[in-house]
Amino acid sequence: MADSRRPLLELVGVRFGFPARPDFLGPVDLAISAGECWGIVGPNGAGKSTLLRILAGLLRPIHGTIKLGAHKLSSLSSCERAKQIAFLPQHLPRDVMFRANEVVLMGRYPHRSFGLFESANDQKVVMRAMAVTQTEALSGRHMTTLSGGESQRVHIAAAFAQEPEILLLDEPTASLDIQHQLHLLRILRDRSLSDGLAVVVVTHDINLASMFCTHAIVLHQGRVVAAGNTSDVITPAVLDAVFGVTLSVANAPGNEENQWMVPRIVR
């Protein structure tokens, strides 16, 4: 059982670079705890997806430490990481010759004996994940026949089936209509609150981040501009300079607890 006093995932002084840009990202200090939902926001090229891949252990920083619980992330095998971290990239394969339920079942791979045989419990987990993501009707269809939004929801179901402690998603609502955007983000929020799942979402929609995320980190040109409670971070004072626009705060009628960022249009 995870120590509730220890962050699930912690970055200290993390820097990352490429040969042509050795100082591309960092330093980043970040502590993600159970039950938190973090939004990573910032303009294009700010380093959002790079940071998410570092959190997933897919990119190794050139400086700093990353700890998953009590262990250095780099010391764990890919299977050990996969039992605790699920990662959903921005661009997902759609031309795979598998049915939707088979793709969701792949999420159980880290938990299966020798990775070969699924159990009755695996099937129950898959059915529950597809019910939560409203993809049961797609179960027997080949992935090649699904729309972009349908395919996205199936891959999200596979991430849920993985039963991770930490779920990392790169722009998961990009291919979804507004109904399924709201449905997905409600699921993520509810799972965080009820099950203690830690969620990190890269998103361009600062208003959805404000509505559903408990915490946010703002990146600009690879640097952390602000990080903390969403109400302190998703504000015009922080975001105006980052996005190069002038934002105003508006309250939606009947939803006064949420502040919406509205750009001022210069004619």
Summary, kept brief:
The protein is of the alpha/beta class and 267 residues long.
Describe this structure in words.
This protein folds into two domains: 1-84 and 164-267, Rossmann fold; 95-163, no CATH class. The chain has nine helices and twelve strands. The chain has helices spanning 48-55, 78-82, 100-106, 120-132, 148-161, 178-195, 206-212, 230-233, 236-243, and strands spanning 9-16, 25-32, 37-41, 63-68, 71-72, 85-88, 166-170, 198-202, 215-220, 223-229, 247-252, 255-263. A six-stranded mixed beta sheet has the order 6-7-8-3-9-10, sandwiched between helices. α3 runs parallel beside α5 (148-161). The chain is globular.
* Number of E-state strands: 12
Poorly predicted spans: none
For the largest sheet, list the strands in their spatial order. 6-7-8-3-9-10
Please name the fourth-level CATH homologous superfamily of the largest domain: P-loop containing nucleotide triphosphate hydrolases
Roughly what is the average pLDDT, rounded to an integer?
91
Portion in helices: 25-40%
Instruction: Briefly note the CATH topology name of the largest domain.
Output: Rossmann fold
Outline? globular
The gyration radius over C-alpha positions equals 19 Å
CATH architecture label name of the largest domain: 3-Layer(aba) Sandwich
Please indicate the count of domains: 2
Count of DSSP-assigned helices: 9
**What's the N-to-C terminus distance?**
57 Å
Q: Any idea of the CATH class of the largest domain? A: Alpha Beta
Topology pattern, helix = H, strand = E: EEEHEEHEHHHEHEHEEHHEE
Largest sheet: 6 strands, mixed
Strand content: 25-35%
Structural class: alpha/beta
